[in-house]
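agent> fetching stored inputs for the adenosine-5'-triphosphate docking request
agent> found them:
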Amino acid sequence: MNTKAQGRILVIDDEKNIVLVIQAMLERAGFEPLVFTDSARALEAIESEPLNAVITDLYMPGPGGLDILEYCQKRRPDLPVIIATAYGTVETAVSALKRGAFDFITKPFEQTELLNVVQKAVQTHEQRLKEPIVITSVDVPAPKATEISSIIGQSEPMQEVFRVISKVAIANSTVLIRGESGTGKELVAYEVHRNSPRCQKPFVKVNCAAIPATLIESELFGYERGAFTGAVTSKPGRFELAHEGTLFLDEVAEMPLEMQVKLLRVLQEKEFERVGGISTIAVDVRIVTATNRDLEAEVKAGRFREDLYYRLNVVPVQLPALRERKEDIDLLVKFFLQQSATQLNRIITGIEAECMLAFRNYSWPGNIRQLENVLERMVLMSESTVLGARDLPEEIATAPVVRDLLGRKGEAEVEPSTFKELVRKQTQAVERDLIERALEETEGNVTHAAEKLKLSRKGLQLKIKELRIRRE
Ligand SMILES: Nc1ncnc2c1ncn2[C@@H]1O[C@H](COP(=O)(O)OP(=O)(O)OP(=O)(O)O)[C@@H](O)[C@H]1O
Ligand SMILES: [Mg+2]
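agent> prediction call returned; pasting tokens
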């Protein structure tokens, strides 16, 4: 008997003795059984436990074997389900097979018979997890395409970006990163710093679009006590904080013209004064900037100083849009799926080919950020452990190219989407109810409520946001 393959097996039978016998047999053969006499409880475990196969009795109080089977097919299609049945109910067992059960064993069964079936089930499970675009928590390493470790991309345009980063990082030159929204500009800025001799020193970020024009000067250069109402103490600015490190000016095109003059001066002279200060402060700072605007057009329109433009544009790095490097989509999808599933405490074992096809052909106007958000939402909302085209958000499912690909006919579309909407509304109502109750019981403590609901804290927070639940 070959009992080498180990696996975690969920066993459900309302008769305690039977459960104990199966448990003993499995343990002896090196499997790890997880046993239940209460089938409702078992359903919870199916949802949350790493498992390789399920053995279930047919008739039990509460959910029966066929219910368990149906549940697995919906939520854990990767799991083979073995039906254990008394002699008289073989016919039902056969009909269970027709519905997709993996196999059945008749009670009373022998150890050899049980182990053979379990063995085969575990092997099948292994194979199912290895199917082309099935994603498992074990076999997808965080893809590392290059030494620029946090950036994913094997396509030629990304390889070019990596080459520029590694060349330019070691120099002190000013870098201007350009690319559409969500293409990874901030990530690149950080990698420039991390791969530079300044990596042990601070990386300071300023989002020029997020700071009101009136505050930007004191943010960048700091202020002295009494410089303006409210300046009760003096405070160093971001330039000082970034001394010997890197200062990242994000969305630099949004900087007001009068600030652009001041910035130019620091870049040229490497010194400045705090607001309301008289002494001159010298700093050694490497400047990296980013924008998603057409800077040349901004210069032409008089909104961006030409001299500053030349100062900043010493080494330009152009990030490709995601639609220009579709060959990276699979890798990114796998990476973000794993990430979201872990963070949200969900089990996602794969993605249907059809769904991946839609991803590859969609235009991704919001680039990688959009892809990341879409996957997070899909992981959160999916009713199954395998993401499918049915889980695609509206904006992707209705994009013409995707609609063509998925072969949806105009008239057939109304019904399912209304139905889907209905199901979604119902699910949301139930979720809302559960969450509100948990929050009430824990007096609004999200951490405790998350524990009660067996969700991760982040997962619960996202749900609260998504369902717009008020917390008092
Ligand atoms: N190549 C990549 N590999 C892995 N993650 C990426 C990659 N590019 C971007 N991301 C992720 O996508 C998100 C958006 O990236 P980032 O904030 O760097 O974009 P951005 O170009 O600065 O966008 P915006 O112009 O909107 O500020 C981040 O969560 C980032 O970690
Ligand atoms: Mg950004």
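agent> quick read of the result: The pocket of magnesium ion (ligand 2) is lined by residues 185-186, 250 (CB under 6 Å).
agent> awaiting further instructions
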